[in-house]
Amino acid sequence: MKNIKLIVCDIDNTLVVKHQPLTRYSKEIIDECHKRGILFGLASGRGTLMLKQLAEDWNIHCDVLIGMNGSEMYDHLLNKEEIFYEMEEDWLKQCIEIMSPFESQPHCLKDGVSYIRENNEAQKASNRYIRNKKPDYIVKDDSDFWKGKSPKISFRVKAEDMPAIEERVSSYTLQGFIGFKTETTMFEFCHQDSSKGNLLKEFCKRHHIAKEEVCSFGDMSNDISLLKESGVAVCMSNGSDDCKAAATHITDYPVSQDGVAHFIETYLFKIVTN
What we know:
Blueprint: E1 6-10, H1 24-35, E2 39-43, H2 48-58, E3 64-67, E4 72-75, E5 80-83, H3 89-98, E6 104-110, E7 113-116, H4 121-130, E8 137-138, E9 152-157, H5 162-170, E10 177-183, E11 186-191, H6 196-206, E12 214-218, H7 224-228, E13 232-235, H8 241-246, E14 249-250, H9 259-268
Parallel strand pairs: 1-2, 1-12, 2-3, 7-8, 12-13, 13-14
Antiparallel strand pairs: 3-4, 4-5, 6-7, 6-9, 9-11, 10-11
Helix pairs in contact: 1-9
């Protein structure tokens, strides 16, 4: 492995168990990365404003934040925040129609406000976790979801419905947008060019970082593009089969045992020089 200049990490069930705080060990390893001259970033389905809040809560420095599964990016090195891709109104409407046979809770973000059907326990837990200060908007009817663009639309679903959802989505010829599983109970749609990997590639191009100098961590299908743009592509031992297939390495430990931190300390710090 070549010396690593940048580490980018998915959050939920990769860096931390979902909705759990960053462990002391993981924070120490991230701090050590910066001491060794390694840039560090987060890539998530959450928006960059929410990622900034998490980084502040965890007291870690992030050089790049890739949000909304690759629709937004905050480049801390340039102090620049950008929206790259958004879902058109008609696409959002199509997504609601595609998912109509299944019991689901749609969610999309417009100007930092969550549009939802009901403020259920899952939504409340997410708001508490990111300390969201903006009140949710409970839609009057589903047409509110497609009034105005949004970086993505996600659906909380039953795990047992996921195979049927994936089959139904694959039967459609989607124009301009794509759909994929991000958790065992979450399916999302976004712009066809929106991916964590595309924005990682953009950040690296700006700052003259070679693919071989990047290490990324992920656990699910939406992380595969991130892994493909990294010389050291790491899937969690608790990750999905397709994500593992795209990886060059699998962690020795799962997320519940600080798999990311152990991998960085055991394998990357041995090859990175000051």
